[in-house]
Amino acid sequence: MSARDESQHDTQHDTPDLLGQFDAAPQPSRVPRVLMWAAVTVVVLGGAYVGGQWAVADKVAASTSVAGIDIGGMSRTEAAATLEAGLPAVMARPIEVEAGEKSGTVDPVAAGLAVDVTATVDELTGFDLAPMHLWDAAFGGGEAEPVVTVDEEALAAEVALLAETLAVPAVDGTVVFADGEAHATPAANGYTVDTEEAERRIAEGWLVVPEPIDLPVGATRPAVTQEMTDAALAQAEALVSAPISVEVEGQVAQLPTEVIADAASFTPVDGQLQLALAPDVMAEAVRDRTKDLETEASNARFVFRDGKPVIRGGEPGKTIDGDAIAAAVVEVGVTPGAQRTATVALAEAPAESSREALEALGVEEVVAEFKTPLGASNAARIHNLELGTSKVNGQLVLPGETWSLIDALSPITAENGYLGAGIVSNGSLTEGVGGGLSQLATTTYNVGFLLGFEDVEHRQHSYYFSRYPEGREATIFVGSIDMRFKNDTPYGMLLQSYVRNGEVVVRAWSTEHYTVESSTTRRANVRPPTTVYDTSAGCIAQPAGNPGFSVVVTRRVLLDGKVVKEEQDPWTYQPQNAVVCKAAPKKDDKKKDD
Length: 594
Description:
594 residues; disordered C terminus; alpha+beta; 4-stranded antiparallel β-sheet
């Protein structure tokens, strides 16, 4: 058999089997059945998983706590109630913080921190397909972070206060002198709290991170550094290394190191320690070691010559210049290689009042004058008036100044030269030290009245004395009654006063300013005197005097033709009754005398 035949034979032999395979009935496939069961299994397991998640959706995972409050396994409602009950204790616990080397606390309530209970419980409950949710529900969730609300303004305010207490100020270097030697205090850095970052850390770390919460700080440098301190110390040591001499007008004062150290000090100026010596201490040290270097200034003053005011004095004096001495001693004391001798000159000591200042006051002419007669005055009364006018004489009343007669005369005592003379006290004639000075009060009051000065204080006598103008007079009594006026003009006013030719005279020197018009009403309510009887030990008999009556004094003050003041001053005088120093007669005796 040929190869072809063999090939054909083989083909023929195989064909019936292949055809048989196509003609046979097909066997059913197992894949759809497997897929179906797999799908069923997935559905069953998925349903079980979803059902499990739904089963724990309303419960907090076991072993869960918030801010240390155990709410594990609780329902949403139970967990919220438990947190609400436990949070007050948590809120009452201060938050511990630290910054650098200091520590402190923050009141969470004051800082505006709070736990949002509802939001916190919502975070821990609810349906969730994540496998971990089911795991936590079964095996525990641990410590959970609360949902915190923050009042940013309140937190910022609390942190600002906290930052002040936690900050450490930088220490400036200093140099001081003690026991004649220089001593330095080292400079040191400080730090301040970064408040913005501190707010963030407190808000985010509260009830979450372990306490104390670390707050960030930033270093601060001292204004006076150690380098500056070292330089100042070198100056100080050089200054007190040996005595220093001061030469003034040919006299030499040697200053010991102890004296220099007592006067020396360092002051921070623009970040540098500036050395200075106390001028008054240095001046006194030189003054104690020299003789007769200084002369006093002569204050300018008004005096009367030939009845007119002239200016005397006003020359400057010479004084030891403490500022110049201090500067010169520092210079020779700290300059390397310098001779330790400082040469200074005396300074001019100006007068408290200069001639120029007095000349500018306008004291040029008599602008007002008033005289009152002495009448039947005794020697003691005249003496008091002479002494009083000498004290008033030369009194200068500056613009805007209020002048007091009591101040000018005081003390009105026997030790000051005043004598006892008649006075009116509580409506009765008696004797007192300084009696008669009311006449000076009346005379000076009328000068102020005529000048148009402001009437600050005055009071008329109880009785009318005919030597005075009605209603335009004044009395004084130490401690209760004064005579005061105010110079409300732009010029100074100089008083000239004396007793001469049976009169008390007071003049005012100044520059004419106001024009004064005045008038006095006729007497009204006139009451004649009567007789009174006085049995007191100090009684002084007196005859009946002037009647009692009422008057009104009007003053109009004009400036450049315009009225600037218009005043009315009413006054009522009591009748000056006769005083008999014995008991009043009985009515029967009086009839018998008649």
